[in-house]
Design a protein that fits this description.
The protein has 259 residues and is an alpha+beta fold. Helix content is 16%, strand content 40%.
């Protein structure tokens, strides 16, 4: 068992599990993750866990695919790739992922959006309803979005560049007046290096015509569901370790994820 920072373990109920026991726990309010954002930042893009294994562990989530091949959205137990060419494709169960986090979503709180919300207002609403005990939650927003600014990245080839280098060539789109779903997670600052801290969100259109990593989104109307996450089961691929707080480059991750 790798050394785990006590603050991190306490904040997210962290348990490190091996590959064969990724989906053993049937408890609600538990997220399941493969690898770490720090490893992805350093170019660890080779997938180990299959999408089929991931779907056994959860029905809502996000991540990426082998060789960083686009943005991954898990919604209602189905896996979708939002590719850099703009297409949205159902992902085969045998496809692997180098980084993903999922949960068996069961909302603790459901609310109707109080009128149209610009991106900053929507983020403030999500922050307001973040659980005070763990600061960690899973999110699902269904509705009509007046604007979604999204991105994806193309498949990479070895030797892999860093995530910062890949982000310099990301593809961005703006989708106007689109029905769909935003899924994601919020993790506390104590999870820096392990996960994207703050809100990490992906979008998928209702007609599966578009999607990607959310840079900004304006919600016209919709329903917001929030589930408190008080446990995290983490699978570490060979060569990947839990980063220490001192080694976690939180600013670099936020810069890449928000630009």
């Amino acid at each position: 068992m790798p050394s785990v920072d006590p603050e991190l373990a306490h904040a997210v109920g962290l348990r490190v599990v091996d590959h064969d026991h990724l989906a053993d726990d049937d408890q609600e309010h538990t997220a399941v993750q493969t690898s770490t954002i720090a490893a992805l930042l350093d170019g660890a893009y080779d997938g180990e866990v299959t999408i089929g294994e991931l779907l056994e562990a959860g029905d809502l989530g996000l991540g990426t695919l082998d060789a960083l091949d686009g943005e991954l959205v898990i919604l209602d137990g189905e896996a979708w790739q939002c590719a850099a060419d703009g297409s949205v494709n159902r992902v085969d169960a045998g496809t692997t992922t180098p980084f993903a986090v999922v949960t068996r979503f069961a909302a603790d709180e459901t609310l109707e959006a109080p009128g149209p919300l610009a991106h900053d207002e929507l983020m403030a609403l999500l922050e307001k309803h973040a659980p005070p005990t763990t600061g960690c939650d899973a999110i699902r927003i269904d509705g009509r979005f007046s604007r979604v600014h999204a991105r994806s990245v193309p498949r990479q080839a070895p030797p892999y560049p860093s995530l910062a280098e890949v982000a310099e060539n990301q593809v961005e789109w703006t989708f106007d007046d689109v029905e769909g779903t935003v899924v994601g997670f919020r993790f506390p600052r104590s999870a820096a290096g392990l996960e994207v801290t703050g809100h990490h969100l992906h979008f998928l259109a209702a007609d599966r015509s578009c999607g990607g990593h959310v840079l900004e989104c304006d919600l016209e109307r919709g329903t917001v569901q929030v589930e408190e996450v008080d446990g995290l089961r983490l699978e570490l691929p060979p060569g990947v370790e839990i980063p220490s707080a001192a080694d976690a480059d939180e600013e670099a991750v936020r810069r890449i994820e928000s630009s």
